Amino acid sequence: MNVDVEVVWQRGDSEMPANIEHIVKKARNELLLRSLQLPNDAVNIIRYNASKSNKTINEYIASLVLENIQTAQ
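Above: the chain's sequence. Below: its structure in token form.
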């Protein structure tokens, strides 16, 4: 097994390269969706609506939560 790893960016370096930032955002979105443990239909709807509104999944879910908090007040 080959364990050679190329470090392309580390916290504290200059800004994260765009191609790496894209991958990190995708991974965060997937982790968020998995941590919510929603049914597949709900996950697909969230992905579709986030894409349709030109937001990341994180931004879309955050907007839903904020709307519900404001409505509850």
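Residues 39-73 form one domain.
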